[in-house]
C-alpha cells in the first residue's frame, strides 16, 4: 500500500545520506515515475526531500534536516509495528521491510522493552485456509488500487443473480472472515461493497479513473447494517450440550444461564438467508425462541434439508 511505501522511504532517507530512485523503484517493485510522485507527497507533508544531480547524486533529505524521533513515543512505535505485523498476516511483503526499518530507529538500550511491547498482542487476520484464486484476486485488486485502474468482473449476488460490473476500486475491506471490495460501480452509479468470493473473471481494464476524496472514517459499508430498521431481535436458547458453542461464538457477558443449565440470549441481526444458515449450523443444540416467523422459516428450511437426505441412496452398480 502507498502509505507503507511512503513511511518506508522516509525511514530509509533518515538512515542513508543518498539513495537512487532506481534502487527505490526496484526495492518496492514500482516505476521510477511512481517514486518521484512519492517524493512529491513526502515534500507536501513537510519533509524536505532533495534530488541531487550528477555523479554521486541521488535522493536525500535536505542538509541539516533531522526528523525528531521523539515525535513518536516507544509505545506509539510499538503500536505501529504491531499493526504492520497484523497486516503482514494477510500478505504484503513490504510490511516486513517496514517493520525492520521501524526497529532500526529504536535505540539499542530500549530494544528489549520495544520487543516486549510488540509481542503483548498479536492479531492474525489470515484464515485457516486461503485459496489460491482468492490470493490472485487480492493481488490484482491491490495493483488496480495502486495504479488507479478500473476493474471488471461477473458478480453473483446472494440470490444467485449474475451481472457484469465495471468498478473503480477504492478500498479492500476485511470484515469478519471475508474480503470485500468497496468501489464506485459504473452500472449502479453509486458506491457498492462486493464480496471477493462472489467475483468471477476479474480483470483490469485499460481505463484510469480519478479517485474521489471520500471519507472512510465512519465506514460507509457498515452504517446501513447497523440502522435499527434493518435489525431484528432474535432470542436464542442453547441446550447444556451446546454451551461450549455459545461460549465460542458469543460474548460470555451476554449469556444467561436458564433453569435447564443451558444459555439464553437475545441478539440483533439483519434477517436474511445468511441468518437462517447461521442459526441452522448449530444443529439441535440451539432453539430460536422468537420471533415466531423466524421459527417457522427455520422449520421449513430444516424439513427441506431432511427431505433431501431422507430418500434412499441410489444403489451402487
Automatic annotation (TrEMBL):
SUPFAM superfamilies (alphabetical): Winged helix' DNA-binding domain
InterPro entries in the record: CBASS_pafABC_assoc_protein (IPR051534), DeoR_HTH (IPR001034), HTH_11 (IPR013196), PafC-like (IPR028349), WCX_dom (IPR057727), WH-like_DNA-bd_sf (IPR036388), WH_DNA-bd_sf (IPR036390), WYL_dom (IPR026881)
- Domain HTH deoR-type, first and last residues per copy: 2-57
Question: What are the protein's UniProt keywords?
Answer: DNA-binding, Transcription, Transcription regulation
| Recorded GO MF terms | DNA binding
Tell me the superkingdom of the source: Bacteria
Q: What is this protein called?
A: DNA-binding transcriptional regulator YafY
Amino acid at each position: 500500500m502507498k502509505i507503507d511505501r511512503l513511511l518506508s522511504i522516509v525511514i530509509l532517507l533518515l538512515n542513508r545520506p543518498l539513495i537512487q530512485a532506481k534502487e527505490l523503484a526496484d526495492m518496492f517493485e514500482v516505476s521510477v515515475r511512481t517514486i518521484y510522485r512519492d517524493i512529491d507527497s513526502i515534500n507536501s507533508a513537510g519533509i524536505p526531500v532533495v534530488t541531487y544531480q550528477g555523479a554521486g547524486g541521488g535522493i536525500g533529505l535536505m542538509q541539516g534536516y533531522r526528523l525528531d524521533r521523539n515525535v513518536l513515543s516507544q509505545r506509539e512505535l510499538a503500536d505501529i509495528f504491531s499493526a504492520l505485523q497484523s497486516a503482514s498476516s494477510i500478505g504484503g511483503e513490504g510490511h516486513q521491510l517496514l517493520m525492520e526499518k521501524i526497529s532500526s530507529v529504536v535505540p539499542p538500550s530500549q530494544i528489549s522493552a520495544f520487543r516486549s511491547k510488540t509481542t503483548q498482542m498479536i492479531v492474525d487476520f489470515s484464515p485457516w485456509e486461503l485459496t489460491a484464486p482468492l490470493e490472485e484476486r487480492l493481488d490484482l485488486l491491490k495493483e488496480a488500487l495502486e495504479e488507479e485502474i478500473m476493474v471488471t468482473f461477473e458478480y453473483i449476488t446472494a440470490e444467485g443473480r449474475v451481472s457484469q460490473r465495471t468498478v473503480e476500486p477504492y478500498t479492500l475491506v476485511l470484515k469478519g472472515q471475508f474480503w470485500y471490495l468497496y468501489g464506485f460501480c459504473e452500472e449502479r452509479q453509486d458506491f457498492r461493497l462486493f464480496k471477493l468470493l462472489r467475483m468471477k473473471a476479474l480483470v483490469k481494464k485499460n481505463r484510469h479513473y480519478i479517485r474521489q476524496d471520500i471519507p472512510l472514517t465512519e465506514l460507509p459499508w457498515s452504517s446501513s447494517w447497523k440502522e435499527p430498521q434493518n435489525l431484528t431481535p432474535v432470542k436464542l436458547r442453547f441446550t447444556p450440550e451446546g454451551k461450549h458453542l455459545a461460549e465460542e461464538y458469543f460474548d460470555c457477558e451476554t449469556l444467561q444461564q436458564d433453569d435447564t443449565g443451558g444459555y439464553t440470549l437475545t441478539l440483533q441481526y439483519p434477517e436474511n438467508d445468511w441468518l437462517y444458515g447461521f442459526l441452522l449450523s448449530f444443529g439441535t443444540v440451539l432453539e430460536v425462541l422468537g420471533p415466531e416467523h423466524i421459527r417457522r422459516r427455520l422449520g421449513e428450511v430444516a424439513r427441506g434439508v431432511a427431505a433431501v437426505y431422507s430418500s434412499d441412496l441410489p444403489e451402487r452398480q
